[in-house]
Amino acid sequence: MRILVAEDEETLAEIVATGLRRAGFAVDTVYSGDAAIAYLSLHDYDVVVLDRDLPRVHGDDVARHLVGTGSRTRILMLTAAGSMEDRVMGLDLGADDYLPKPFEFPELVSRVRALRRRSARPAPPLLERDGVRLDTVRRTAERDGRALELSPKEFSLLQILLEAEGGVVSAEELLERAWDAHADPFTGAVRVAMSKLRGKLGDPPLIRTVQGVGYVL
Fold first, then answer.
1. What number of helices (H) and strands (E) belong to the chain?
2. Are 2-118 and 126-216 equal in CATH topology?
3. Cα dist. 60→33, 65, 144, 184, 191 in Å?
4. Do residues 66 and 73 make contact, with C-beta atoms less than 8 angstroms apart?
5. 180-201 pLDDT, tens per residue?
6. CA 188 to CA 72: how far, in whole Å?
7. Has the keyword Nucleotidyltransferase been applied to this entry (predicted)?
8. Which percentage of the chain shows pLDDT scores above 70?
9. Where are the chain's structural domains?
10. Which CATH architecture has domain 2-118?
């Protein structure tokens, strides 16, 4: 799951991004409305955590842009103004959810996950295939009843493969959905992470490499 945090208070943006990464998300951060529009045009985000009072291009206009382009990216709008009128206005602009500042971080994570489930690429709470069971809510994984201690990145890779339901997933798609914009596509990050995931899944092997195409569970 890939998230964009658009917040002009850089310290707050990085705190939010760090917490979301620890919750298992791939996160990019921007500090202005024009940068948010640029990133949203370049990458396929599941959710944008959007500060309403952004410089250069207002958060309201970013929301209008997303709605106008028919984007499937869900909008969680943040604002220091928490009146009913502000909430109604934000939702009328096309926001899917609204969270006033200050907020409790667990609530933010819960709302982001709820929006992900409502996106055009929904993930059921339980994914199962070939003895592998993934609980996307509790963030637990097991194979044939054996608990798997997966890193957030390994969990994301396994979730994407399970969601493909036996289809091949390219390295490019894995990089797009599980890493942030700073990932170097030439470092072999997908190959290394996939190797670690295979080791934790154990034998017999479950993940097959389709040469020149991608990976399949």
1. 8, 11
2. no
3. 9, 9, 48, 32, 40
4. yes
5. 766 665 568 888 999 999 999 9
6. 29
7. no
8. 88
9. 2-118, 126-216
10. 3-Layer(aba) Sandwich (3.40)
